[in-house]
């Protein structure tokens, strides 16, 4: 197999830029696709040869990521974000409208090879949805009119760069600012403060602060840093996890868009404390539009002596940051899957232990921190651990940013000291008629009205930041079904309980939605959850059934009104399943049909 | 103490739908334990007895094989209607198994390929009403009727079947654990 000279000439500079390094495979694939629209088997074989790696490795990596295509998906690839908040904002009607205008079916390319449309997982624009991606560029606030405009632009083959800038506007929507969002940033102040405290001093302040990770798991940051620092191997790495894939979360997007200095300085301080020389920002593919501004910011930091050699004038303190992009895989938010992806492989979670702090990127000690966590580090460097520890609750110090979306008057970011009640958040964002809140995304917990007195904190309701509100007109069954589809799509397929369990759960939810469910299916759902939760390899499978289990328990009527009254209903239409054979045999006698019940 | 001297024998019905009878063969592999079993149960409709239809009130139905045609649906419904407990017996009943390999193909294409005249000029798909029509796909049993227990394995070993039956017959919840629980 060989590729045309034209494709080869487009690929060559990309390979050159990445020095033919196989561990850059994911980045290479992304850039190749950007250049030639899709990665055919021939292109994959060409890459394997050039990188001197097995063809199967390129093949499997390409097929793992949702945003890499093996077949031509058109020069314009439109993806509609399909989170439940997009659904509530009417994305399905918009999708149908565009499909009709372009005369397209879901997932099919137009006859002239120009355009395709499909759905994708949450793109992190829940406060300004419905959102779409066109060739991975985010477009927000979709309306029927905007759909028409986009159809015209595509038909006219206008390059994306010439589309109205207004389409690509992404607002911050900061509604309640506290110590992070509300404090002006003074570039370099935090790094200088950390250097002044010394490596040991900074770690001591971190311990005092009792800062816990903001990515969801809530591991104590100082413990992570110390373990990495004490690991004998070098070099050490700092990774910032900006693969914000949890449906309903968008705080990291805002932090990277308007508070990037804090994120990067947090990484520099982490590097200073643990003695790392290299850092990565793993940015989710959906936030491609942030890449250039972030690169520019990094260049500015280098010029200001905050990155590169002898940072802050300290001889020998060398550290630099590189940005890697994801390609549409939720699982890469799991830290070991993220590291696999950084190494150019499919993002499948590793077996732990060993933990990344001793054996992470390239088998070397690696700290993986969330975007928000790193921002908090700069506050601790400037103000000290004791000051920080005084804010929030005993086990959850400091403030937390919530990404509020769904049925409320003012969706956006809300920063509170830990310990805030759910009811308070609902009051502030103008959600008078909420019947449920999904906290911490699809993998989180669904709270009903009677639980609105609970508090956001690791002691009570822990969260990675997502806060989706459902008003009284909403159907919680559809919410859970949306999440079930999400997990079935995002399971990496590594372990059987998750690979099979998430699909079974999705199919049962669909069966109930079609009115074919009975009490039997209700029992099956809970039985599946009992296998998924303890049996799955990583957090994805362990939490995949949460939303279903929660809603079955708290919103049972939403399920029961859909159940058939009989003992059991088949999963499919039996008579229709005979139709093809009936037609071919030319029969229509009684035995050629199947009734509802024998 | 007051147990009747001759407790009623439990009534078992078995069938092989779209299966290979391998699970039934494995069942027979319980060997001399068959005698022990015969003291406790009697067989109703089953390939072993050649009884053509279920009598009412069977206690247990063992269903081997997936559901591939209309007749399979009728047999399965008959067993479900007459048995208190229905077991998806073996890999094909649980997942569709080997026959489900055809699910990747269009059933129409399959038929026209198979019933092509030798020179390939025409197809002659039989239309005799005696012949059951094929479903578009091979389905696992649980997509057509309610299933009470799944006994995986291709086939489940004789020991697995024995453990399962003795658990049920003595009124315990059947528990199949490693090394008896196997999916291949």
TrEMBL record, chain A:
One Pfam family hit: NADH_4Fe-4S
Entry keyword set: 4Fe-4S, Iron, Iron-sulfur, Metal-binding
Cofactor: FMN
Domain NADH-ubiquinone oxidoreductase 51kDa subunit iron-sulphur binding: 477-522
PANTHER family (UniProt xref): NADH-QUINONE OXIDOREDUCTASE SUBUNIT F
Family: Belongs to the complex I 51 kDa subunit family.
Name of the protein this chain belongs to: NAD(P)H-dependent oxidoreductase subunit E
TrEMBL record, chain B:
Residues covered by the NADH:ubiquinone oxidoreductase-like 20kDa subunit domain: 20-167
Claim: Oxidoreductase is one of the keywords in the record: yes
Residues annotated as signal peptide: none
Cofactors (names): [3Fe-4S] cluster
Entry keyword set: 3Fe-4S, Iron, Iron-sulfur, Metal-binding, Oxidoreductase
Phosphoprotein found in the keyword field: no
Protein name listed in UniProt: NADP oxidoreductase
Species, as recorded: Azonexus hydrophilus
Organism phylogeny: Bacteria, Pseudomonadati, Pseudomonadota, Betaproteobacteria, Rhodocyclales
């Amino acid at each position: 197999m060989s590729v045309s000279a034209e494709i080869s000439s487009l690929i060559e500079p990309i390979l050159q830029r990445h020095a033919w390094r196989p561990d850059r495979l994911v980045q290479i694939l992304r850039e190749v696709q950007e250049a030639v629209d899709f990665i055919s088997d021939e292109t994959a074989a060409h890459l394997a040869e050039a990188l001197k790696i097995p063809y199967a490795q390129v093949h499997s990596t390409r097929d793992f990521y949702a945003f890499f295509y093996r077949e031509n998906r058109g020069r314009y690839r439109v993806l509609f974000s399909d989170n439940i908040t997009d659904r509530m904002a009417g994305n399905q009607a918009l999708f149908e409208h565009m499909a009709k205008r372009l005369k397209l079916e879901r997932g099919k390319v137009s006859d002239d090879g120009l355009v395709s449309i499909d759905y994708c997982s949450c793109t992190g624009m829940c406060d300004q949805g419905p959102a779409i991606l066109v060739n991975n560029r985010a477009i927000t606030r979709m309306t029927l009119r905007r759909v028409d405009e986009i159809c015209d632009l595509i038909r006219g083959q206008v390059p994306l760069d010439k589309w109205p800038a207004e389409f690509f506007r992404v607002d911050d929507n900061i509604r309640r600012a506290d110590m992070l969002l509300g404090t002006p940033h003074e570039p370099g102040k935090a790094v200088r403060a950390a250097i002044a405290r010394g490596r040991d001093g900074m770690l001591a302040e971190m311990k005092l602060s009792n800062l816990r990770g903001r990515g969801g798991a809530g591991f104590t940051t100082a413990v992570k840093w110390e373990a990495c620092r004490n690991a004998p191997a070098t070099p050490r790495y700092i990774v910032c996890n900006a693969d914000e894939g949890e449906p309903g979360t968008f705080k990291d997007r805002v932090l990277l868009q308007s508070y990037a200095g804090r994120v990067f300085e947090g990484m520099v301080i982490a590097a200073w404390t643990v003695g790392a020389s290299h850092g990565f920002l793993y940015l989710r593919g959906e936030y491609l539009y942030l890449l250039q501004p972030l690169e520019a910011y990094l260049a500015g930091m280098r010029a200001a002596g905050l990155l590169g050699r002898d940072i802050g004038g300290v001889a020998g303190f060398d550290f630099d940051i590189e940005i890697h992009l994801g390609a549409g895989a939720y699982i890469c938010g799991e830290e070991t899957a993220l590291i696999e992806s950084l190494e150019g492989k499919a993002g499948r979670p590793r077996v732990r232990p060993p933990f990344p702090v001793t054996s992470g990127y390239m088998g070397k000690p690696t700290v993986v921190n969330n975007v928000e966590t790193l921002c908090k580090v700069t506050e601790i460097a400037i103000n000290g651990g004791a000051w920080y520890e005084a804010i929030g609750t005993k086990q959850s110090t400091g403030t937390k940013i919530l990404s509020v979306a769904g049925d409320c008057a003012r969706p956006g970011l809300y920063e509170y000291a830990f310990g805030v009640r759910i009811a308070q958040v609902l009051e502030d964002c103008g959600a008078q008629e909420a019947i449920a809140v999904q906290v911490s995304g699809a993998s989180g917990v669904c709270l009903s009205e009677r639980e609105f007195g609970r508090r956001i904190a690791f002691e009570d309701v822990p969260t990675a930041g997502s806060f989706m509100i459902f008003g009284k007109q909403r159907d919680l069954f559809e919410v859970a079904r949306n999440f079930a589809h999400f997990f079935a799509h995002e399971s990496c397929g590594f372990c059987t309980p998750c690979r099979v369990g998430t699909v079974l759960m999705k199919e049962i939810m669909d069966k109930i939605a079609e009115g074919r469910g009975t009490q039997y299916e209700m029992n099956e759902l809970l039985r599946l959850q009992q296998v998924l939760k303890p049996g799955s390899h990583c957090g994805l499978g362990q939490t995949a059934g949460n939303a279903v289990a929660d809603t079955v328990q708290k919103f049972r009527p939403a399920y029961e009104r859909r159940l058939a009254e009989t003992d059991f209903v088949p999963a499919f239409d039996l008579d229709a399943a005979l139709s093809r054979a009936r037609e071919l045999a030319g029969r229509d006698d009684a035995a050629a049909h199947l009734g509802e019940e024998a | 103490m007051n147990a009747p001297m001759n407790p009623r024998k439990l009534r078992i019905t078995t069938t092989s739908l779209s299966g290979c009878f391998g699970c039934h063969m494995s069942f027979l592999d319980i060997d001399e334990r068959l005698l022990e079993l015969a003291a406790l149960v009697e067989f109703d409709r089953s390939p072993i007895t050649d009884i053509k239809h279920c009598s009412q009130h069977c206690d247990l139905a063992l269903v081997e094989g997936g559901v591939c045609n209309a007749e399979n649906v009728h047999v399965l419904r008959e067993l479900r209607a007459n048995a208190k407990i229905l077991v998806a017996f073996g890999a094909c009943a649980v997942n569709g198994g080997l026959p489900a390999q055809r699910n990747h193909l269009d059933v129409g294409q399959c038929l026209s390929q198979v019933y092509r005249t030798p020179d390939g000029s025409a197809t002659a798909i039989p239309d005799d009403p005696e012949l059951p029509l094929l479903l578009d796909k091979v389905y696992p049993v649980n997509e057509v009727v309610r299933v009470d227990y799944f006994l995986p394995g291709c086939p489940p070993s004789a020991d697995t079947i024995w453990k399962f039956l003795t658990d049920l017959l003595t009124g315990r919840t059947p528990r199949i654990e490693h090394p008896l629980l196997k999916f291949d």
